[in-house]
Amino acid sequence: MAEFKLDTKIYKKDNLDINFYISGKKILNGILHYKLKSQNNEEIYLSEFAVKDNFITETKFCEQKEKPVSRLFSKIIKKGYIIGKSNEK
Fold it and tell me: Cα–Cα distance between 23 and 36 in angstroms, integer?
């Protein structure tokens, strides 16, 4: 697997509005982990497998011809969301 470079901007696949920067790398229990910094400067460590499964890089995001609506918003729309009203019927 190819490693991500430091300061790479990545987007969460489920909600493309959420992005992180890779601010560090560390080997824990023989597995590469990335230190991710959020927009509000919170930091978390995720394994390389979790990052590759749940995130896309900025370059792949920009290569997409059509920018998809976030999956979270798509789920809300499918359930019949109406502005100003809850989804409960």
Answer: 6
